[in-house]
Amino acid sequence: MDNYNPANLLLLLVILFNFFLLGSSRLNACIRTVAIQGGILSLLPLFIHGFSGHSLFLAGGAFLLKGLAIPFLLLRAIRQVHIRREMEPLIGYVPTLLLGTLATAGAFIFSDRLPLIEAHRGSLFIPVGLATLATGFLMLITRRKAITQALGYLIFENGVFIFGMLLAEAMPLMVEAGVLLDLLVAVFVMGIVMHQINREFSSMNTGQLSSLRE
Amino acid sequence: MNLLFGAFLFFGLGALLAVMPWRGAKAATFFGSGGAILGCLLGLVGAGQGLAAGVAETFFLPLSMPGGAFSLRLDGLSAFFLLPLFIVGLVGALYGTEYMGSGGKTRWSGLHWTWYNLLILSMTLVVTAANGLLFLFAWECMSLTSFFLVITEHNLAEAVEAGWTYLLATHLGAAFLFAFFLSASAFSGSLEFASFQVLGQLSTPVASGLFLLLLVGFGSKAGIFPFHVWLPDAHPAAPSHVSALMSGVMVKTAIYGLLRLFSFLPAAPPWWGGLLMAIGIVGALFGIAMAALQRDVKRSLAYSTVENIGIILLALGFWMQCRATGHYFAAALALAGGLIHLLNHSLFKSLLFMGAGSLMHGSGSRDLNRMGGLMRRMPITGVLIVCGGLAISALPPFNGLIGEWFIYRALLESGTVLSGLAAFFPLVLIGLLALVGGMVIIVMTRIIGIALAGEPRSSAAARAHEAGWRMWGAMAALALLCLAGGLMPVLLLQVAGRAATLLDPAAATLLADNAMSPWWLGIMAVFLLGCILAAYGFSRWRQGCGIVPSSATWGCGFAFPSSRMSYSAESYTELPQSAMFCSCLNPSTEDGRTIGFFPEAKSFSFEAPDPVLERLFKPFFRRAARVCSGFRGLQAGQLHVYLLYIFSVTILLLFWVGQR
After folding, report:
1. Taking 90 as the threshold, does the pLDDT of residue B539 lie above it?
2. Can you tell me the distance from the alpha carbon of A132 to that of A154, in angstroms, rounded to the nearest whole number?
3. Residue B21 to residue B2: CA distance in whole angstroms
4. According to the model, what pLDDT value does residue B283 have?
5. Is residue A57 part of a domain?
6. What is the CA radius of gyration of chain B?
7. Range with the lowest mean pLDDT among A182-191, B123-132, B205-214, B500-509?
8. B119 pLDDT band (50/70/90 cuts)?
9. What residues contact residue B253 under an 8 Å CB cut-off, 6+ apart?
10. Tell me, what's the pLDDT at B182?
11. pLDDT in tens, B592-616
């Protein structure tokens, strides 16, 4: 397919942003990066499926939520709780980056072995989707602050979105809308949780939640 | 079958209406006991019809559960087990209306009635289910409802602890049953009992594995040795009519399950029966020895249940063995003995538990050493307990004799037919069974002598009052049934024959033959009853004529004998304890020995905890808990760690998929 080329360029950009997210400690920059990543991803349906009503709606919805609404909410949240940096990751930035590289390499190797249909063989969608999922996971595992956790979920969702692109034609509109709505609700919940942790423990550290076990 | 559905309806309604927010306990008791009584009456008629008809009735309603269907079957074996269930359920409900209305128990009575109805309902389902999933479902319902009944008085720590032990034991047992049904359905391709006939083609080692699963799974519920550990704790904790229902009927449902599922397995090799006999006789000896050491009446009776289950198991094991070795006559006798004893035990043990409940109700304690002199204060209860004691000691004219007579005859039969070493074992078993019988008499005379005879040992016992008509009426009904069983043994044999038809048709035809009929036992019982009544009348007449003056008991030379000088429950068993019991059963005592001419004040305490529980299960579970607590670190309470688990599992799964 001819349309793959610009799409592949976008996907490579997504991977670069993944590495940036894993290596950066500045929350402002991270949120903006996630916003740009979401914006780039929202262009993908147009490149793959052309300018149909369906793909336009998908692109518009994704851009509004991933590119604008959620980053706006997150930026407002960190302004309110006055934090700028992730101070104390559980695993340092350099090791996380290395792990992220390994995971990305693993994703590429693994996707070669998957039994795919002919149209998807050799495309970048699968490995990039897997690599983004792994990045999201690493983000969730290594960072302490609730806000970086929320970012982790967003990246995770971006990975799912890339996978979804492959199926976008088969997928009914309602399912897409549902996924996006889910994401928005998840961010709201995270915001509430963040607020509550902040109020209860005077910190944004999710590690404090361990005192809730049993 | 339709009558059974009517019974289900009444139990359900009773359970539902009993938990409605009525003001006061009266309405809850009315609806709860009413539902149980009406349901049991209907069910009794239904079971009687099923027993008389002798044809299996089935009912099938497909359910959307995979492998499950609401499939019922009422045949001779089910009806045989339904009979004691509805009798004891009916009588227990009558008893409970008064029992639960006294003391501090009223506030629990509503919930208690709900569980009581549901317990009877689930037991009915267990006995009639013809689908593996339905059976397991009913089995679990039975375990849970009886657990809630055990912890009825949940303000007492010991009741709650007994409840937990029971729940643990019964769930571990259920795990084995799940394993059985899963592997059985893997062979037969369906969970319907009708399709289990295919199991008859299994090879002997596989079938033996399944049999062992059944034995452990049902054994933990039936309280066979050494899985009986929950029983002596749970029975005393529950209200007395519930103890009666649990001990009289619920443990028998496990025997039902064992027999029913055993009937699908291929022809048994002789060692299955041998194993059952060994467990049975050890359990009987152990149970009765422990019963003699307990000062808690209900605990003592609970251990006696262990003993009786042992005897039933011995008989059934002997049946299996004789059938495997081709001695069909002895097999028929043993099967009849086991089934009749099972029926009898549910009657007289319920009577005794209810009697113990009445003693508690009157004297305010379960401790034998705080009773005494209750025969004079509670004459009706006292006489009924003596009746139960006679029945359980297998003395005529009550029913306990009939079952044991068949068992003894089966053992004698094969002892005389066989020769050499093969004849030795049945004859040894006769001796051991006779030893058990003797010990039962010790246990019963101990309960009767310490609790009923003599002088009151506490002020509460001195103020004891007779139970109301509903309590003694319930017990009297059971006592009459026991007497009827003793006077009409042929009836018992016919009822057992119906159940035997399904298990062993050859034995059933042998039993139907009149040559084995124990009719003369009934005539002997009538004669004996006549003698007893005549002797009683004669002694009353002599007293009335003033020929024999009544005077104080022999005072042993003490000017002012007090009840503190009389035999206590512990001292009564000192002789068998020191002469017969092996040291592992010995109770732990705080020494109260006095030395010297001017001894100081001494105290003496005596405790007989279950040796199996203390030396086997408790250390095992403590060690298991220590090992398992090492894994608690996995539950870190850190979100990141949990996510790491998910991540690593996902990666592993991806690799696994990639490998294929």
Report:
1. no
2. 10
3. 31
4. 94
5. yes
6. 26
7. A182-191
8. very high
9. B81, B85, B123, B126, B127, B142, B221
10. 92
11. 677 778 777 777 777 888 888 888 8
Q: Is B490 exposed, middle or buried (0-12, 13-18, 19+ CB in 10 A)?
A: middle
Domain count, chain B: 2
Task: State whether B640 and A141 contact (CB < 8 Å).
Answer: yes
Mean pLDDT, residues B553-558 taken together = 64
Q: B209-238, pLDDT tens digit by residue?
A: 999 999 999 999 998 988 999 999 999 999
Pairwise CA distance, residues A75 & A154, whole Å? 14
Interface subset of B 604-643, CB within 8 angstroms of A: 635-640, 643
> Angle of helix B76-99 relative to helix B469-487, nearest 10 degrees?
150
Asked whether residue A214 is assigned to any structural domain, the reply reads: no
- pTM above 0.95? no
| B87 in any annotated domain | no
Residue B633: DSSP 8-state: G
Are residues B576 and B653 part of one domain?
no
Residues B461 and B411 reside in one and the same domain: yes
The answer as to whether A125 is a domain residue is: yes
DSSP 3-state assignment of A41?
A: helix
What is the ipTM, given to two decimal places?
A: 0.78
Residue A137 near chain B (CB below 8 Å): yes
DSSP string, B284-329: HHHHHHHHHH-SBHHHHHHHHHHHHHHHHHHHHHHHHHHHHHT-HH
Shortest CA gap A51–chain B (Å):
35
**Residue position matching structure tokens 């009776």:** B301
- Write out the two tokens for B339: 């089934």
Identify whether residues B530 and B623 lie together within a single domain: no
Does B318 score more than 80 pLDDT? yes
* pLDDT per residue as tens digits for the range A5-49: 678 888 889 999 999 988 888 888 888 999 999 898 888 888 877
User: Which residue out of B635, B642, B647, B660 would a mutagenesis test of the A interface target, given it has the greatest number of A Cβ atoms within 10 Å?
Assistant: B647
In a domain, B602, yes or no: no
Answer yes or no: do A140 and B640 touch at CB < 8 A. yes
DSSP category for residue A64: I
Amino acid making up residue A157: E
- In total, how many domains does chain A have? 1
Domain with B643, as residue range(s), is: 616-659
Buried b (16+ CB within 10 A) or exposed e, A63-94: bebbbebbbebbeebbeeeebeebeebeeeee
Distance from CA of A70 to the nearest CA of B (A): 23
